Amino acid sequence: MKQDDLLGKIRAVLFGTAVGDALGVPVEFKSRSTVRKNPVTGMTGFGTYGQPPGTFSDDSSLSFILAEVLTEGYDLNRLADHFLKWRNENYWTPLGDAFDIGISTSRALSRLAKGEDPRSSGCKEEGANGNGSLMRIAPLVFQVYDKPAEDRFELAREVSSVTHAHIRSVISCFYYLEFLRQLLEGRNKFEIYDDLKSGVTDFLKSVPVEQDEIALFGRLLDGDIYKLPEDRISGSGYVVHTLEASVWCLLTTGSFSNAVLTAVNLGEDADTTGAVTGAMAGLLYGIDAIPAEWKEQLARHDDIEDLAERMAKKFSNQK
Ligand SMILES: [Mg+2]
User: Fold this and answer.
1) Is residue 280 exposed (0-12), middle (13-18) or buried (19+ Cβ within 10 Å)?
2) Which of 25, 30, 41, 132 could crosslink 102 through cysteines, CB 3.0-4.6 Å?
3) CA distances, 166 to each of 108, 124, 186, 189, 228 (Å)
4) Which secondary structure element, helix H or strand E, spans residue 145, and what is its range?
5) CA 43/CA 54 separation, integer angstroms
């Protein structure tokens, strides 16, 4: 990939994530019926956390931290150190305050702070399948895209497992990265969706995973999720719901703006559904399809541009 093309795609992922996140922050935790009375149509502020317009949350902070680590080379220990720096020193926060942190992430970071290895710090129980690793994994696509499927799965597993080590979170991250990877190649979104039905299903046969776990992804891997009405799609913080909702938003809309606004207007975990959808929609429609006034209102806009440039330099040199 040429450095200019690569830079555009990296910017699309980073800004797509942060714009989707920041659009959703003011309505996080609000029910769909509440959001529907006053739907999000642009970058607003305040609401749930009382933050000004353009304030992104943990989803983007932790995504930027992953991107930042990748500029110096993949290193799980450094990733863990930087996550702690976020919690303890407000590193890569929008306005100097880590104002939102998920339960499993918080527990895993406490273990890391006590010296636990990042390969064993993540929550392993079935109940720890919130979207806390899915929301921060998109930048990993630039690390995995030219690697074989086994390596792509292994990297998704490692990065998810720093906080979310259950196989369900790992499969969710893997599916999402596979989708992003094909978007990076410029493929049609419905072709990608169909391709992953057999591609991901076949790959998972090589992984020690219970059939019951794979069955939980049935609406993505067996059905045509885009045919479902909105009331069958959940905006909850459960990782499978977030993944389903994001794919549904991408497949049922025709522009970046509509994809992310549809995502945040599902309510509940609006910022995360927005962020996860935003990275995909950014890659699909391109950086220039992200409304300039949304991008420009983002906290740390110039730092995000700088991060994208450093990432592009790193990944184009690698080729
Ligand atoms: Mg958040």
Assistant:
1) buried
2) 132
3) 13, 5, 31, 28, 28
4) none
5) 6
CA of 15 to the centre of ligand 1 (A): 15
Q: How far is the CA of 180 from the centre of ligand 1 (A)?
A: 20
How far does residue 45's CA lie from ligand 1's centre (Å)? Answer: 14
- Look up residue 232 and give its DSSP letter: G
SS3 198: helix
Q: What backbone phi and psi angles, to 5 degrees, belong to 51?
A: -95, 150
DSSP state of 140: G
| Residue 144 CA to ligand 1 centre (angstroms) | 25
Q: Ligand 1 centre and the CA of 232: distance in Å?
A: 23
Distance 211 CA to ligand 1 centre (A): 31
The answer to whether the predicted template modeling score (pTM) of the entire model surpasses 0.85 is yes
Q: Are 189 and 252 in contact (CB under 8 A)?
A: no
Residue 40 falls in which region: left (phi positive, over 0), alpha (psi -120 to 50) or beta: beta
Distance 66 CA to ligand 1 centre (A): 16
- How high is the pLDDT of residue 89? 94
Report CA(79)–ligand 1 centroid distance (Å): 19
Domains along the chain?
3-318 (1.10.4080.10)
Token pair, residue 115, equals: 């010296």
Q: How many Å lie between the centroid of ligand 1 and the Cα of residue 58? A: 5
